[in-house]
Amino acid sequence: MKINFTTPYNQKNMNNIRIKLLAILLISTIGFTSCVSSKKYKDLLGKRESIEQENSKLKDDNRNLRTSNNERASLIAKQEKQISNLVEDTTNLGRNYRSMQGRYKGLNKNYQDLLAQNQNLIKGNQRETKKILAQLQKSQADLIKREDSLAVLETEFNKRKSELDVLSQEMAAMQERLRQKELAYNTLNDEVKRKDSAMMALRNSVADALVGFEGQGLTVTTRNGRVYVSMDNKLMFASGSFNVNSNGKNALNKLANVLKDKQDINILVEGHTDSVPYRGSGNLNDNWDLSSKRATSIVRILTNGNIDPKKITAAGRGEFNPIASNATAEGRAKNRRTEIILMPDLSNLYNMVVDGAKAEDEVESIEAPVEEIPVEESPKTE
Q: What is the DSSP string of 12-49?
């Protein structure tokens, strides 16, 4: 006999505990799902923007590849016409060959008839015999000549047939090359679209990360397939200094957090100044030196934010690349800036273009001139 120790009171407590555990589990699941969705969204945005900036450069490559494909198609059409002409010539040769065979049979029959007549008339009239012998000799000479012509036609026929076979093989090879070129074009086009989407996603991610600084002299734009993060020097540096201030470090750390996992992006940091000569003290010589030091300071902060140093370059442009006139205070303020240029890694696309160029070099033009075969008129037999 089994004894049940569970009372209604204990059973009620157990039900309450189960309800609380289920509620905690449901709240944890909702929180975990929200975090994962947010992370996936950022990852998707990051991937979408890494390819945006290559479209401008690679469109020309696409157009060149499309032109090359059109030229290949034109060449194939030319070869198809050439093959059609060769087939027509071969058909005519076959017709002439069969005609010569018929004439040969006719001449041979005449020869045999004359030979039989000669046998019958050997004992007959000598004069008639000489006439028949002359006809027999002429027919025999015509027969030998026709045999020679028939041999020439047969040789030419076989030669043209071989040329037709070779052209057919070359045409098949040309069509295969064209198919490979079309496949390469489609692959290149897909890669361009992928990089366009990635670069757009990168631009949006950078803009979202730095949205709090846009009113402080920071802008995020795209030009020529690249993302430009432009920062006024007042946001980053004190006048005449190359030490990044706390506000600038905050912006750079946010940018580094977005870029640290982007292995297919190259980064160029450019320092710019206005045209007012540098008159400060210390180890700086001029504006060029100042712009280089500022670019290097920014690079160090970015690399400290786990960005691969192999992917980043510092450059000082001094006053030599202004975006506004240095004749006004407003223009000089615009020229005093730092630009962080995000460029997609084009090595894969470059390799595709190089492989396409190698395949292009291997394509040889196929032009086999079709020669006319002289056909002699058959002599009339009496």
A: HHHHHHHHHHHHHHHHHHHHHHHHHHHHHHHHHHHHHH
